Amino acid sequence: MILEGLRVADLTTGVAGAYCAKLLTDLGADVVFTEPVTDDLGTYLRTSQRHTDPPADDWLARADVAIVGGPGPVAGPLVTVSISPLGHGGPDDGLRLPEEVLQARSGSLSNHGHADREPLTVGGRLGEYVTGAFAALGAVTAWWRASRSGVAEHVDVSMLEAMQMTLVTAPTLMARFPGGRAATVRWVMIPGNEPAADGRYVGITTVTAQQWYSLLRVIGREDLLGDEELATMMGRGRRAAEVNGFLRDWTTRHTAEEIEARCVEARVPATVLGNGRELPRFPHLVEREVFVRQPGESWIRPRAPFRLHGIRDRALEAPRAAGEPWPARARPGPAPAGGGAGERPFAGIRVLDFTAFWAGPFATAWLCAMGADVIKVEAVQRPDGIRFSAAVRPRDDPLFYEKSALFHASNLAKRGITLDLGHPDGLAIAERLVEHCDVVAENFTPRVLEGFGLGYERVRALRPDAVMLRIPAFGLTGPWRDRPGFAQTMEQLSGMAWVTGYEDGPPIIPGGVVDPLAGTHAALALVAALEHRSRTGEGRLVEVPLVEVATAVTAEQVIRYSADGTLLGRRGAGGVYRCAGDDEWVAVSRAHDPLDPAERAAWCSARTARDAAAELLAQGVPAAAMVPAHRTGEDPQLRARGFFEPVEHPLVGTHEYPTWPMRFSAGPARYWTGPAPTLGQHTEDVLRDLLGVGDDELERLRREHVIGTVPRPPG
């Protein structure tokens, strides 16, 4: 196991800290926790860990890493990870707000639900899980540095910031980039979760125009292929009644399996909607043994959300008593002069980054922020698809592909090159670059890079100690391995959508959270694999399927159904109340509110959202006014903690970009060191510097479109 021998003391309560500890346990750490296990979810999160009653001073003094809910750092451990609702420092340091209230402040509440109804809180406690994943990533990154420098380090993790990064999609940038609108948009994706003839739902996703055209052919509406407005998500939203009508006229005449099969055959991402009952029955998950029996229990639970090939999985054991404290041992001493890991601990590591869209680039962005040289590979025939999500239209701006807010947010400070891997010379250059890189990363369906002959075996032959990170939608094996799948597909399949929605309505997808969530898990596994390489000299294949990350954080649904037949339902709109004014709402913690909901609704309607939240907080009831997503950059706590950093780009100007939801006492003081690359911006520099390619050869490669800076049709 990669982190075998790492001692972790977890003093937190709640899901976020427990999930952080669970991920470290999955990687081999020896974790001791103090929170009592009171239910099956706690048993899942505490599997293979040991329990001791607080105070745990003897354990804490001998731990390598401590996870705490207070401000930190604590004496003893080399690394302290503190998890709090709003992070430390700033005007709201110490304010305790639960996850469903933080959704209002993060901008998530304003973006979910129907425009003509109350806004929706996303179900499933996803904010707590994503916070735990970031905390684990912070822990292994800090340990990488502190174990080399001997200098104790504090990682300060904010749940608000974690949710702002994941439950909404770069809303402040989306509003301010070219073509953007500073407006609140609450809408439900169309198509989405569509009713089938057998009473179930099928999740259908059409992110690209081509997928929408393919769906039209599936349902026999070729007459609409020329309707450009319907080819966009916003256009379908404007004509929701019409589109829902003809879509559901077709879906309600077919079973869920029939709809799924016909969509998948046409390369349209689709899945029977998952929940605690359906998930363990999906044949792909059965074949990959995603769900396993919990030791000592009758119920099943997901396996670890990542697979490090060639390294055995952690054996699952029921939580047990801790026994005697760890024996004392010396901690690493100070590094020799110049021998520490520095402000950016991954300086000196080079990444060949074939990833696209959001999950993969999100993972490699972490290494870039921490000092790695990340070389992003695109092709003029196949640029990163997220470039085409720009708010400006091609007919209005020929450089529209350089103006996607999400592309910029996910690729800051990377070096961008273009290579046509379908050309023999492009593939040969890519293979030569592999020899110069510590990490090779990709997130396509498995057949893409394997079709070019660049699977792990080839990478290992070129660079024996390389770590290869692969983030396929459904994994490298199994009957669905070659299916396309976006974050929305995983939210539909995993049960995230099932628990989000109005009490009287269909499931609603959270809208993209799986991408950054999977990217965080991938970065965590990648850092762990680099740690393994530093000790052993061995490279590894790291597999992080989107679907297995999603099932890891929706485990409660499967656990509850397999334990006692309880099928968890939708959270509904409870705890969210309309206030005086136009689209003004306040989120109130239902667990702490002494008032009947009807009385609370009347009370809130007579106050502005800000006044209602302030009065409730003064009474000890956690509450927050709903903040429009595009205005979250004004939050005083986020500003005080430096969550947004300005970066200048030659084509889009200077914008403030979200950073990461953790602050490291050893730095960096600033995460982003440069803008996202334009298409092929650094190709010639990289090929000259790393491979010695001369000017004549570069000119030939440009002429044959092996490299370039302007998109062109494939072929």
Give an overview of the whole structure.
The chain is α/β, with parallel strands linked by helices and 715 residues long. It has a domain at 206-268. The protein contains 27 helices and 25 strands. Strands 13-3-2-1-4-5-6-25 form an eight-stranded mixed β-sheet. A hairpin with a 6-residue loop joins strand 20 and strand 21 (585-588). Helix 6 crosses helix 7 (159-166) and helix 19 (487-494) packs across helix 21. The longest helix has 24 residues, at 126-149. The radius of gyration is 25 Å and the shape is globular.
Question: Main beta sheet, described?
Answer: 8 strands, mixed
Order of strands in the sheet with most strands: 13-3-2-1-4-5-6-25
- How many strands? 25
Mean pLDDT: 95
Strand content: 5-15%
- Taking Cα atoms only, what radius of gyration do you get, to the nearest Å? 25 Å
Query: What ranges have pLDDT less than 50 throughout 5 or more consecutive residues?
Result: none
Q: How many helices does DSSP assign?
A: 27
What structural class do you assign from the helix and strand content? alpha/beta
Per-chain topology:
Elements lengths: L6 E4 L4 H12 L3 E4 L6 H6 L4 E2 L5 H5 L3 E4 L10 E6 L14 H8 L1 H4 L14 H24 L3 E6 H8 L4 H6 L16 E3 L5 E4 L4 H10 L14 H6 L1 H12 L4 H10 L4 E3 L10 H5 L3 E3 L6 E3 L4 E2 L11 E2 L28 E4 L5 H11 L3 E6 L26 H6 L4 E4 L5 H11 L4 E4 L4 H5 L4 H7 L4 E4 L16 H8 L19 H23 L4 E3 L2 H8 L1 H10 L11 E3 L6 E4 L8 H9 L3 H10 L4 E3 L10 H5 L3 E6 L3 E6 L3 E3 L18 H9 L3 H9 L12
Parallel strand pairs: 1-2, 1-4, 2-3, 3-13, 4-5, 5-6, 14-15, 14-17, 15-16, 17-18, 18-19
Antiparallel strand pairs: 6-25, 7-8, 8-9, 10-11, 12-19, 20-21, 21-22, 23-24
